[in-house]
């Protein structure tokens, strides 16, 4: 994945059997592929594949996807990079879309959760490497307690998100899994930017690519803020919080 992205990666994944894996073992294929997308910074139209497969769409055309703020976008498989926050992604806004089945939304949210988790871990790796290599006032940056706290908080958020995704069953589980992953990735973006300092703002450093990717992925199929509100409304209506995992 590190050597190809976009349409080239789509073609490579098809050659590797991605459609068959998605059809037969989605519980294995989706976490593997989407987490690697996040860790490598590559992108492909596989989210469209996941949503279309779960919805039972035979039409090969892109499926309009809901975006934060009641917007709709399509992921153009062979399109040029769009004008979104993440300029590398071929996203195009559309006036409206058709409401997707609940199982398709849930499948897409689980996939996005793994993508966000991989992106968050990529940012943590960059910040950790910088902290180990950089010195300030004659000491390694990693020796400062404030830096350690930011990196530790990021790691805890990412580990918690992974646990939520591992147990994300049903529509509510998928909702909470994506919300946890989105919050963890946003936490990683904030803390890792602080650890990296000025270099993290530059185009020469890879952090900005992961931060932009996080902002776009978080908005797809409901932002973290929207999903948390939705989960709260569901729990309030039901009058109880369901057990999400047997501990």
From TrEMBL:
The keyword Oxidoreductase applies. Residues 97-224 form the Acyl-CoA dehydrogenase/oxidase C-terminal domain. This is Acyl-CoA dehydrogenase. Residues 151-178 form a coiled coil. The keyword Coiled coil applies. The lineage of its organism: Bacteria, Bacillati, Actinomycetota, Actinomycetes, Mycobacteriales. It holds the Pfam family Acyl-CoA_dh_1. It comes from Nocardia gamkensis. SUPFAM superfamilies: Acyl-CoA dehydrogenase C-terminal domain-like. Keywords: Coiled coil, FAD, Flavoprotein, Oxidoreductase. PANTHER family: ACYL-COA DEHYDROGENASE, ACYL-COA DEHYDROGENASE FADE28. One of its GO terms (molecular function) is acyl-CoA dehydrogenase activity.
């Amino acid at each position: 994945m590190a050597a190809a992205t976009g349409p080239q990666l789509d073609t490579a994944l098809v050659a590797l059997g991605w459609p068959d894996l998605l059809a037969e073992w989605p519980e294995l294929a989706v976490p593997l592929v989407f987490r690697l997308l996040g860790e490598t910074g590559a992108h492909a139209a596989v989210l469209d594949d996941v949503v279309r497969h779960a919805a039972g769409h035979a039409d090969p055309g892109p499926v309009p996807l809901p975006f934060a703020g009641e917007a709709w976008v399509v992921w153009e498989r062979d399109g040029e990079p769009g004008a979104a926050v993440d300029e590398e992604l071929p996203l195009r806004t559309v006036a409206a879309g058709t409401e997707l089945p609940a199982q398709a939304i849930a499948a897409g949210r689980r996939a996005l959760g793994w993508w966000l988790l991989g992106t968050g871990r990529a940012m943590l790796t960059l910040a950790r490497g910088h902290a180990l290599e950089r010195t300030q006032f004659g000491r390694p940056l990693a020796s400062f307690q404030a830096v350690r706290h930011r990196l530790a908080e990021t790691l805890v958020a990412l580990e918690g998100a992974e646990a939520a995704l591992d147990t994300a069953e049903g529509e509510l589980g998928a909702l909470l899994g994506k919300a946890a992953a989105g919050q963890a990735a946003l936490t990683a973006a904030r803390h890792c930017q602080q650890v990296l300092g000025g270099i993290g703002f530059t185009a020469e450093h890879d952090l900005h690519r992961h931060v932009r990717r996080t902002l776009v992925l978080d908005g797809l199929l409901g932002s973290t803020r929207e999903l948390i509100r939705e989960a709260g409304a569901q729990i309030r209506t039901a009058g109880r919080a369901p057990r999400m995992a047997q501990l």
